[in-house]
Write a structure and sequence with these properties.
MetI-like fold, disordered N terminus, about 0% strand, globular, mainly alpha
Amino acid sequence: MRSPTLSRIPKSEKSLFSYLFALLFAVAFVDGWRRAEVNPLVFFDAENRGNLWKFISGMFPPDLSSDFLSLMIRPALETIQISVMGTIIAIAIGFPLGILGTRTFSIGGILNEADIQGSPLRRTWRFSAYFAARGLLSLFRSIPEFVWAFMFVRAVGLGPFSGVLAIAVAYGGMLGKVYSEIFEAANERPLEALQSTGASKLQVFIYGWFPQVLPNFVSYTLYRWECAVRASAVLGLVGAGGLGQQIEISMRMFNFHEVLTLLGILFVMVAAVDYISAKVRAML
């Protein structure tokens, strides 16, 4: 279905915009290639080929000894626990901020016309809450979880708790932003019908708004949980525990065969989470 706004734009303006966008993209691509010093030929340099071969050959055979695998059970469980707890706290952060940051729920749309009209104080409070929520969501997601982990390691010390906090804050901003967009995409007609029957705003949200967005809500949350599993492994590189910390130790000791085993464990974990997520989405 075409957007009514786009359908009103003259065809000549659409063509001009397409050409300008293509030109801007080409300029950005060329400038980015030069500034990022992209050089695929560096892989074919004799010295780099030797280093790459030394790394790859050192990974085989992987370390599958019972002693090493038994030691990795705790870091693997720790990685899952970091991702689960981080995602749960991220939902607790992102859900209320996402609701407040939804324009059609806070300051716009038919549901708010009667509340805002004739009440400057209420209007000011609504706009303040809306922009504060959007600002916090922008702040949380603008700083990568890796940087948040650095700060929390300094604040609470080494260990999995700093990883949990890093994922919670960074993913809270991401989840809240997407939640607000999902809420804004909901069909307002059922909401208006509920409101016409005298339902309160909370009842409209529980019985009209949330059921509409629940499948997308759960789907994106599960996707973020999958990302959190990978992120928790990376955060271990800065001392936040989990498999990432073991990978960093093995890399530092040049035990590349252990690195391959750890990457295999991480792959199995991500695949398992993806399978669980697919099953949950299929039930919705």
